[in-house]
Write a structure and sequence with these properties.
By secondary structure, this protein is an alpha/beta fold. It contains nine helices and nine strands.
């Protein structure tokens, strides 16, 4: 089992170092860490370069998270893909507990763990935050809380780079509709940082993307039903 870790980043100089260090603390073997610079305009690249030669750095014009993740998957050499957002942190046992179902259940192709949100230290006292939502531990159907067999990408394709929000939800929906086998484990595997520039929390104008995802999923299911009835 060869694990490739992909960390896309864009203007993440505040958090990138902590994210990469959480990957380096893993006690499960990793064959490569790919840092994908999505056209950063701050000092993120300099932070990334501090980790050379332990990481491989790739750069692209600012094209969004989906394009950066796709780029990483395309460049990866492993047969298992693990993602981490540059503002989040893996638990020390992240890979150890996620890998276990893949080792014991050959049919499993994606393994999800749980996510625990936390308020970034610089945010405390500056803005109003719903602490009840922060303290909850939730199932993490997000890229940073799972590991994926690379063969799944060969089966269903890459993430939709036209989506500014929800690109992984769309990809996972396609995976489920295609019969990809996945399981969820009870352990928390990722700490999700709440800060001023969280894409999913602040880009409310992009919620129309979620409607687009819903319509796409409905269309796929209708097509499957139509095919089955022929």
């Amino acid at each position: 089992m060869k694990i490739s870790v992909i960390i896309p980043f864009y203007n993440s100089e505040k958090y990138l170092e902590e994210a990469v260090n959480s990957v380096l603390r893993q006690n499960t073997e990793i064959i490569e860490i790919l840092l994908i610079d999505d056209g950063s305009e701050d000092n993120s690249l300099k932070v990334a370069e501090k980790f050379l030669p332990q990481v491989n750095i790739f750069r692209q014009h600012n094209s969004g998270a989906a394009a950066a993740r796709n780029y990483g998957v395309n460049q990866s050499k492993g047969d298992i893909i693990a993602f981490l957002d540059a503002d989040d942190i893996w638990t020390d046992h992240h890979l150890e507990v996620l890998v276990k179902p893949l080792l014991t259940q050959n049919h499993v192709e994606i393994v999800f763990g749980k996510i625990e949100a936390f308020i970034s230290p610089e945010l405390i006292g500056q803005v109003s935050v719903n602490l009840d939502s922060v303290n909850n531990i939730e199932k993490g159907y997000l890229p940073q809380s799972c590991i994926i067999k690379k063969s799944v990408f060969n089966k269903i394709g890459y993430m939709d780079s036209t989506l500014e929000l929800g690109e992984f939800i769309d990809w996972f929906s396609r995976a489920k509709d295609s019969g990809v086998n996945y399981v969820s484990i009870p352990e928390v595997v990722t700490y999700r940082r709440i800060h001023k520039t969280n894409q999913g929390m602040l880009k409310k104008a992009h919620y129309r993307d979620y409607l687009k995802l819903l319509h796409s999923s409905i269309a796929r299911k209708k097509s499957q039903v139509d095919e089955a009835s022929k």
